[in-house]
Amino acid sequence: MKVLVIGPGGREHALVRSLLADPAVTEVHAAPGNAGIAQVVPTHSINANDPAEVTELARKLDVDLVVVGPEAPLAAGVADAVREAGIPVFGPSKAAAQLEASKAFAKQVMAEAGVPTAMARVATTVEEAADALDAFGAPYVVKDDGLAAGKGVVVTEDRDAALAHAQACFDAGGSVVIEEFLDGPEVSLFVVSDGQTVIPLSPAQDFKRIFDNDEGPNTGGMGAYTPLDWAPEGLVDEVVQRIAQPTVDEMAKRGTPFVGVLYCGLALTSRGTRVIEFNVRFGDPETQAVLARLKTPLGGILLAAAKEQLADVQELRWSQESAVAVVLASENYPDKPRTGDRIRGLKKAGAIEGVHVLHAGTRVDDEGNVVSAGGRVLAVVALGEDLQEAREHAYEGIGLIRLDGGQYRKDIAAKAARGEIRVPERAGKAGV
């Protein structure tokens, strides 16, 4: 099987790495890829958001499967064009991608499907926003209705700051979704779907804030770990039955079947499990940690989903080890990150037992050096017998990498490793 992976980031590097480990996969290509991906597979410099360009490349390479990584190509209709050309594609149609591209649309689908989520209001004016903020009270949760690469959400006790974020979204021509605040720890669960059948992956937890102790602004994600030993027993089955399957069924009923991976962002609250948001692709950096533990060959799973054959896939196999991913970000991220700085120590970090380095915002300069080319530069992923050992390996690895102005969190998976995460009582139930 020959596979083309679309996207430039760490998630795509993780996908490429897992596909290369699949005995049934004979060749992997990536477009546009990054410096790390280019070290292991051929890369192609195209506009990944252009449906015609992606389809033309897939035809030229004569691939058996196209895997679309990021949200922007999906929202642009890349999967539709590839599917129309008769090439199997793992990724939802433009219509189904609305589950992420519009939070208001996602709320409608959840309401129709009876999926438990936060109460919410859509606002298009400052007056409507102010009313909604006052109705729900602090902490205030304001979300840009459109795609914002994981940085469109503000959670704050400051009403003025919440209103200012809403105003910024309105000024950009958008609307906002204002929600009640959900207490309890958060969980990321990826569910692979072929439009009918759903198969869950291992739950993970990611870290959105830039600084330790969840301080500072939201980012696309500064690290993740899996599995979650503290999660309530039966959580995955509950999410499949109460959230993922009803959502996939509702999308099929609407005539827009969901093929790809549905990312369920969840809060385990005192009133039960609640959906914070849906994404329509593998989350970054959770994918880096989750795929590190997957033992079932990935290519077969993704092709089965693309061909509506997930019902034939056997139960997934997982390593008993824990995985921790720690992200190295550029100076000044998530504001206007500094780029173009040389990255050293990559080979040393990758030589540690159980550690691999996945590139995200990297490129090769004119002198052949790997340099930073984005906000989140790379992730150091480590396996260990338990979370503590995986953390030690990950931090040993990232400590060997040198990037001027580089920053990373020191507390990824620390609370979980110490057994300090508490799930509110009744959080194991999705019912009110």
Mind explaining what this structure looks like?
The chain has 432 residues and is α+β, with helices and mostly antiparallel strands. Among the domains are: 2-92, Rossmann fold (3-Layer(aba) Sandwich); 120-179, ATP-grasp fold, A domain (Dna Ligase, domain 1). It is built from 15 helices and 21 strands. β9 and β10 form a beta hairpin. α1 runs parallel beside α11. The radius of gyration is 20 Å and the shape is globular. The protein starts with a strand and ends in a 15-residue tail after the last helix.
Write the layout of secondary structure elements.
Layout: E1 2-7, H1 10-20, E2 27-32, H2 35-38, H3 51-61, E3 65-68, H4 71-75, H5 78-84, E4 89-90, H6 98-101, H7 103-113, E5 120-123, H8 126-136, E6 140-144, E7 153-156, H9 159-171, E8 176-179, E9 186-194, E10 198-200, E11 205-206, E12 209-211, E13 215-218, E14 223-226, H10 235-253, E15 259-269, E16 272-279, H11 286-293, H12 298-306, E17 322-329, H13 346-350, E18 355-359, E19 362-364, E20 370-372, E21 376-384, H14 387-399, H15 414-417
Parallel strand pairs: 1-2, 1-3, 3-4
Antiparallel strand pairs: 5-8, 6-7, 6-8, 9-10, 9-15, 11-14, 12-13, 14-17, 15-16, 17-21, 18-21, 19-20
Strand order of the largest sheet: 11-14-17-21-18
Extended strand count:
21
> In angstroms, what is the radius of gyration?
20 Å
Shape: globular
Assign the CATH architecture of the domain at 2-92: 3-Layer(aba) Sandwich
Number of helices: 15
Structural class: alpha+beta
Straight-line N-to-C gap: 46 Å
> Strand-residue fraction?
15-25%
Ranges where pLDDT stays below 50 over 5 or more residues in a row are 427-432
Summarize the amount of helix as a percent range. Answer: 25-40%
CATH fold-level name of the domain at 2-92: Rossmann fold
Family: Belongs to the GARS family.
GO molecular function: ATP binding; metal ion binding; phosphoribosylamine-glycine ligase activity
Catalytic activity: 5-phospho-beta-D-ribosylamine + glycine + ATP = N(1)-(5-phospho-beta-D-ribosyl)glycinamide + ADP + phosphate + H(+)
Cofactor: Mn(2+); Mg(2+)
